[in-house]
Amino acid sequence: MTRHTPVPRTRTALAAGALLATGALTLTACGSGFSDTPGDGEASGSGSLSILIGSSGDAETQAVTDAVAAWSEQSGVAAEVQTANDLPQQLSQGFAAGSPPDVFYLAPEALAGYAANGSIAAYGDDLANKDDFYPSLVDNFTVDGSFYCAPKDFSTLALIINADLWTAAGLTDADLPTTWDQLASVAQRLTADGRVGLAFGAEYQRVGAFMAQAGGGLVTDGQATADSPENVEALNYVKTHLNDGSFAFASDVGAGWGGEALGTQKAAMVIEGNWITGAMSADYPDVNYTVAELPAGPGGKGTLQFTNCWGLAADGGNQEQARSLVEYLTSTDQQLAFSEAFGPMPSIQSAADAWTSANPDLGAFLAGAEYAQFPPNMAGAADVITDFNAQLESLKTGDPQALLQTAQSNLEAIVG
């Protein structure tokens, strides 16, 4: 087992992917109102760009601002970054007022709605680096066959293990779980002294990894498949170990999320994304941990991915320069700089080796890119998942089949 020995980092506690993954969108600073009016210092005739982002904190805000400033100096095009305090609301207001930002963070669950009403440009196939993005990320931002927008970065889920507790339980590298049976076995061994073996959030954004490992998922090939036998098997597996006490929802051990459960040693293992690295170094610097791929289930390996893209307004007056900015922001060097600054993984394959070299203990997260599923991204899916999450909270005593049938009905209402 390769230990991740805590070292000082300049990463925020939650990267952008974490915001999506937990459903929280607590953003900093303020910014609303956009204009295509040229700004001071703008190159003659070049237009100007407004950029709206949702930030995980000061590190991300500064990194994006610096990158845009560097591109602006290089291109001669004036560009201004604004940070939203409620990104979905401010983006919606901008479109409603006819003055949206030129470039903006866009969540997968918002893509279909904006694509349907013609608000955003489908520019993905025009990018010079379009073939460099991970295929699953391209799929994540494809609607009706059109690749709409460049994935800006991404996160996956992995198994995070308290290395000291692992060793104290007599476990070694040879015991790292690669199957569900092995996961259950080590979780049982690690459940002791008022501590649970494995904890994770009571939400699809964590439990969905087990569904993927069973060979299931909420939507398959455009069809609602929530009540599939594979998903039933996955939830029954989770329920079994919630009841034998070796698994627990983070909230049931008094933690707000998996990172807190691991950091406070209320759980020996958790299922979380790579945003956990910033939280551990900032809040729990004395906890040694290791990262492993999630074990395979009956259907093989499975995890979930979380991402945003760089959206472009369809009516923006400077499309060519906006696309040039996106190509700059998603370049290998710039994505590696973003990763160092605030934690996400680059969305392009050409950055994989450099990222792995810089983060040798975190390779399991990037390995997940090869088999990751993404949450449903059609219009209305976010509401379905919110309802599903509310039901998952009672999984320990509930009926997995009935729970999934409700999700199936809700999905069928939105999957045309």
UniProtKB/TrEMBL annotation:
Superkingdom of this entry's organism? Bacteria
Q: Which GO terms describe its biological process?
A: maltodextrin transmembrane transport; maltose transport
- Tell me the PROSITE patterns matching this sequence: PROKAR_LIPOPROTEIN (PS51257)
List the SUPFAM superfamilies hit by this protein, alphabetically.
Periplasmic binding protein-like II
Stretch forming the signal peptide: 1-29
**What does the entry list under GO cellular component?**
ATP-binding cassette (ABC) transporter complex, substrate-binding subunit-containing
Q: What is this protein called?
A: Multiple sugar transport system substrate-binding protein
In its keyword annotation, does this UniProt entry include Transport? yes
GO molecular function annotations of the record: maltose binding
Report the sequence similarity comment from the record. Answer: Belongs to the bacterial solute-binding protein 1 family.
Q: What Pfam families does its record include?
A: SBP_bac_8 (PF13416)
| InterPro entries reported for this sequence | SBP
UniProt keyword Signal, yes or no: yes
Keywords, in A-Z order: Signal, Sugar transport, Transport
Annotated transmembrane regions: none
